[in-house]
Each structure stands twice: as C-alpha cells, then as structure tokens.
Design goal:
- The chain starts with 6 loop residues before the first strand and ends in a 6-residue tail after the last helix.
- The protein has helices at 28-49, 55-65, 72-78, 83-95, 117-137, 143-158, and strands at 7-8, 22-23, 99-104, 107-115.
- It has a two-stranded antiparallel sheet.
- With 164 residues, the chain is mainly alpha-helical.
- Helix 1 (28-49) crosses helix 2 and helix 3 packs across helix 4.
- GO terms for molecular function: DNA-binding transcription factor activity.
Length: 164
C-alpha cells in the first residue's frame, strides 16, 4: 500500500484558507495551491494596510507600472483574472485615483488603463511588503535553490497546459 506523506502548514491565515492545510510533497498542483494561499493571505493583509483591497489591486498596478500599454482584455490575461473581475478592480483603483482609463484612439469601445503618480507610489509601497514576504518565504533557502524555484515557477506560468 502506498502511503502519501503529509505535513501541516503551521501558520493560520486570516481567513482560514491557508490554515492547517495538509501539504502533499509529491503533488505539484496541491503544493502550488497551498503556497499561493499562504502568500495571498499575507499579501492581502499587506495590501489592506496601505489602502488597497487585496493583492489583485497591486497586481494590476504592477502590470501597469512597467509602462507597457495594454487594453483591459490584454491586462486581464497579464494578471490572470477574468475580465469582469478586472473591471471591478479597475473601477476601485480609478475611484482611488490610482489609475485612469482612456479611450483607445483606434476603437472607442476599448479602454486603456494607465497608472497615475499616486498609483506608482502605492505600487512602490506594496513592493516593500512583497519583498519582505518573499524574503521570509525563502528564509534559510540557498540562493541557488531560490533562483531555481523562481525559474521553474516562471516556466510553469508561461506554459500552456491545455494540450496536456
């Protein structure tokens, strides 16, 4: 009989999503989900501390801060949220004057979101919390392993698994 080793995540998340979750060391999907839940719980709290609703607000600001111009549909793909969720996030960020939306010159039905100066400040402030969370997550992990994990995650994030 095959015995699957499990361990428990020790820190309880604010909303219980990452609390007391059994991990399965050989199950990539489970581990990615558990790691995401842990990081999201922490970063949602950090976002709230600076006036953002949650980490998705920062993801949108981060995507816009790189200067690449994208319409709302393209932005939804970049930040991996559905278009209706993105519209809600953009509405909220626009009310906070962290983003503006302009009409695309080639198609008046298309909106182009842009980050404001206040949005850039919020993005930079949150980046400090994100950096601290990442440093904590990799505490005690050799730099070579950290780089390998990040490289593998980037590869997974870029890969289309629909043909699998």
């Amino acid at each position: 009989m095959h015995h699957m080793e499990t361990s428990r995540l020790s820190d309880a998340g604010a909303n219980g999503r990452a609390s007391d979750v059994p991990t399965r060391p050989g199950n990539l999907a489970f581990l990615l989900h558990a790691a995401n839940a842990r990081m999201t719980d922490h970063l949602d709290r950090a976002a709230a501390e600076i006036g953002l609703r949650d980490m998705r607000d920062w993801l949108v600001l981060a995507a816009l801060a790189d200067g690449e111009q994208a319409n709302q549909l393209e932005l939804s793909r970049i930040v991996c949220v559905d278009k209706s969720t993105l519209i809600s996030v953009l509405d909220r960020l626009e009310r906070q004057q962290l983003v503006t939306r302009t009409v695309a010159p080639t198609d008046r039905r298309v909106r182009i979101p842009r980050i404001t100066a206040a949005g850039k400040r919020a993005h930079a402030k949150f980046a400090v919390a994100r950096d601290a969370a990442e440093a904590h997550a990799f505490d005690g992990v050799p730099d070579s392993q950290r780089k390998l994990v990040l490289s593998l995650l980037a590869r997974f994030a870029e890969r289309d698994l629909t043909g699998a």
